Amino acid sequence: MATEQELAQRRAKWQAAHGQTIDIDEYEDELVAIIEQIAATEKLEPQDITRLLYRVSRGDGPLAKDQLIHSYRELVARGVLPPSRETLARLRTKPVRTISGVAPVTVLTKPFPCPGECIFCPEFSSMPKSYIPDEPGALRAGQLEFDPYLQTALRIRALDNIGHSTDKIELLILGGTWSYYPTDYQEWFIHRCLDAMNGRDSDTLEEAQRLNETAPHRNVGLVIETRPDYVDEKEIVRLRRMGVTKVQIGVQSVDDNILSRNKRGHTVEQTRQAFRLLRAGGFKIHAHWMPNLLGATPQSDLEDFVRLWDDPALRPDELKIYPCSLLANTELYQHWERGEYRPYTDQELIVLVADCKTRVPPYCRINRVMRDIPAGHVVAGSKQSNLRQTVHRVMKARGQACQCIRCREVRGEKVEASTLVLQELAYDTDTTREHLLSFVTPEAGPGRAHPLLAGFLRLSLPKSRPRFLDEVADAAMIREVHVYGPALEIGEEGDGKAQHSGLGTRLIERAVGIAREAGFARLAVIAATGTRSYYRARGFGLGELYMVRDIGG
Ligand code: SF4
Ligand SMILES: [Zn+2]
Fold this sequence. Notes:
The chain is α/β, with parallel strands linked by helices. It is built from 20 helices and 14 strands. The protein folds into four domains: 19-95; 102-221, no CATH class; 227-408, TIM Barrel, CATH 3.20.20.70; 409-550, Gcn5-related N-acetyltransferase (GNAT) (Aminopeptidase). The longest helix has 17 residues, at 24-40.
């Protein structure tokens, strides 16, 4: 296990190699303008801060918060700006990161081949397939030699240092195709991430999971990324044994012709089958969808997007829209050189994403609309890193608003728990009946198009029994419980904030009622290790892969 000193050394090495400084002389005017604006605005939305930070882009993404704070101190020392505690406090807040009440920790697996041959995918020997060495997360991981313990420990410490609560951690494991790594490596990797959260070493993955139940940093969600053709019944069981709760899955297109032209190596039917299995296993399904692939047009992409929701076998819970980026060392680049491929213009992309967003159903959360690729790598085509904001402006001008979960989240707004209304949305997939139960405010939020979402639960009622999962063969399944609020300390009462007002319990009890009415005698939940005690207190017992409660009837 690395000592404090080793951690500090590695961090210093990383910082030295990737300069955290900014040329204040060159950017003085912009920096002063940004700081003055932040100082003068009482309530800045996270997206406003992000937009401001992009004003001082050094070609590789927005200005980092740390750099802004450093610049502020320097400008105060030079007498350019007046010292102010309040300004410093405003500069320090990073509302985007933990606005959902959970601190995200992203770690990367080591460089390893991927079975895919996708023509758009970059490959660098120093990185897992598809990652670019100077992408923000990849940079940090590479400097730490992809060590899972160090990546997790340093990230938690960084969040702590800027004043964020880290008692609830969502662990995102990125890098190539997870299911293609050797099983031993997978287990070791997760084991070490948990050791870092637990603050102590353990002998086995099971022991680390058990320790995490009462650890200082509890794992409340565990996410991996994989390909549709690597999801089968055995993989579902293995993922669950390792504590995975959500799967990011590369769908990219729901058109076999496009899939094959881009050498994805799987079919739409394989994507459907992966979704069926993941849903049977209670996993949250986070799809990646990629417009502007070889052979696509804005029109065909819009039709493709609509199929994601029209096809009852698909209907993902979360979505990343990653417009294809043209990168130099890819096969797609050769198509572009031969004039067979054309990246969409900014305008085409903005219109397409706006059209897509108007069609997204309210049970889905659109997590991102652009991959954060350092602009220097994109050969041609859109380099917009603030696409979401631009799209939202266009939609507003058209009188439209995205109704996805992310766009309705309470986001730090105060809500009065007693006034919240329970909304129930039921929809079918080909293998389940899904119920999205939500607590929302009675009216649209200030400056927002929709009521604010304070918490929700995904209940899945299987239409047929998944035979490969004996333990839950006769059970209804809670796939997600999410109550929003800033990441408060466990046990701390949240002053009008949503997290501790029993919303989770009320959602669960309603799910029990619905499952019982539908004839189920047992209700299972896909519980992350750090949420086991929460569910135990609500009548669920730990089984082999799930927690289950008898709901009689
Ligand atoms: S499956 Fe993913 S990582 Fe593998 S080649 Fe295709 S895009 Fe790249
Ligand atoms: Zn949205």
